[in-house]
């Protein structure tokens, strides 16, 4: 869900609850103010592989060994 929708939904919910309170009605859904829910684990325990935390691959590639059968010494050039 995009934050525009969540912000709009939350704002509309706040206005509706505010109107209910000013009319003398009970709050249908009380606010959730508990802040321990989004607390992260210490130490972190990722449940999947995070590629963004891995070191980047090396820009230098190791030299490949020459393939057998393609090595010839050239002592003269024939035209």
TrEMBL record:
Segments of this protein annotated with the region Disordered: 44-79
Biased composition (Basic and acidic residues): 64-79
Domain of life: Eukaryota
Pfam families associated with the record: Transferase
EC assignment: 2.3.1.133
Enzyme type, top EC level: transferase
Entry keyword set: Acyltransferase, Transferase
GO MF, one annotated term: shikimate O-hydroxycinnamoyltransferase activity
Listed Gene3D superfamilies: Chloramphenicol acetyltransferase-like domain (3.30.559.10)
Protein name (database record): Putative shikimate O-hydroxycinnamoyltransferase
Annotated organism of origin: Medicago truncatula (Barrel medic)
């Amino acid at each position: 869900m995009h934050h525009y929708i969540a912000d709009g939904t939350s704002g509309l919910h706040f206005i509706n609850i505010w109107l209910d309170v000013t009319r003398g009605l009970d709050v249908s859904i009380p606010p959730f103010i508990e802040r321990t829910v989004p607390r992260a684990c210490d130490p972190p325990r990722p449940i999947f592989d995070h590629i963004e935390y891995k070191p980047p691959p090396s820009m230098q590639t190791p030299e490949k060994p020459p393939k057998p059968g393609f090595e010839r010494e050239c002592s003269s050039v024939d035209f």
